[in-house]
Write a structure and sequence with these properties.
Layout: H1 6-23, H2 27-32, E1 39-44, H3 51-55, E2 62-67, H4 77-89, E3 94-100, H5 104-111, H6 116-131, H7 133-137, H8 142-161, H9 165-172, E4 178-185, E5 190-193, H10 199-202, H11 207-220
Parallel strand pairs: 1-2, 1-3, 3-4
Antiparallel strand pairs: 4-5
Helix pairs in contact: 5-6
């Protein structure tokens, strides 16, 4: 794999910008006018995971938050700020949680091979492993165990999205974005839509309905 020097990175940028201007003279003027992306991507910090490359999307199409092992942490003010801005200001229509096979964060959580802050960060994934240990341990290879935990982690993070006050507010107002759980196979470059059924987490009963139900029950008694 080629690794460019800092100077080469800057030259690559100049070349790319010149090519863009040649193909679309107004490209950067339009890009600088503002953003209205339809997607929020919550992905892994892994250097192999720039989703724009795998989906052939352009700057301005995907709002991005990335961290180790694509976690939706309910105490991470950085993530929650990104989610708030994406949902209420950019009004994204879709939120994509995308993990990947051969994930270092998943491996570290499964095998307990980290220390320090990274160990703290992946601890929720380690707990996820313990919750699903019988299923994961019976898999025949290390690769299958790591990749299955990566899938379960995506499901867990999609569920966590529905625990945020931001998504709950959207559901109360009946304008929540669609949530998607994906896994990228680095060996093929292909994305698998896990087709996670989110309806059980997205259910919301307005207070008025709860009050009506409670009143009705009282009358029945």
């Amino acid at each position: 794999m080629i690794h460019y020097s800092i100077e080469e990175l800057l030259k690559n940028n100049q070349s790319w910008a010149a090519q863009k201007r040649a193909l679309e003279p107004g490209y950067f003027e339009e890009l600088s006018a503002g953003q209205k992306p339809p997607y929020l991507y919550v992905g892994c910090s892994d250097s192999r995971m720039p989703l724009t490359r795998y989906t052939q999307t352009e700057p301005g199409e995907i709002f991005v938050h990335r961290n180790i092992a694509n976690q939706v942490s309910l105490t991470d003010i950085n993530f929650l700020s990104v989610l708030d801005y994406a949902v209420f200001h950019l009004q994204v229509q879709h939120i994509i949680v995308c993990g990947h096979y051969d994930c270092g964060g998943i491996t570290a959580a499964l095998e307990g091979s980290t220390t320090g802050l990274v160990d703290n960060w992946v601890n929720p994934i380690r707990e996820l492993y313990f919750q699903n240990q019988s299923e994961i341990d019976c898999l025949s290879t290390r690769e299958k165990r790591i990749n299955r935990l990566a899938e379960l982690n995506v499901i867990a993070q999609v569920k966590n999205l529905y625990q945020t006050s931001i998504l709950r507010k959207c559901m109360r107002e009946n304008n929540a974005p669609q949530i998607h759980g994906w896994v990228l196979n680095l060996k093929t470059g292909l994305i698998q839509d896990m087709k996670i059924k989110t309806s059980i987490w997205g259910l919301y009963t307005p207070n008025s309905e709860l009050l009506s139900s409670s009143t009705s029950n009282n009358f029945e008694r």
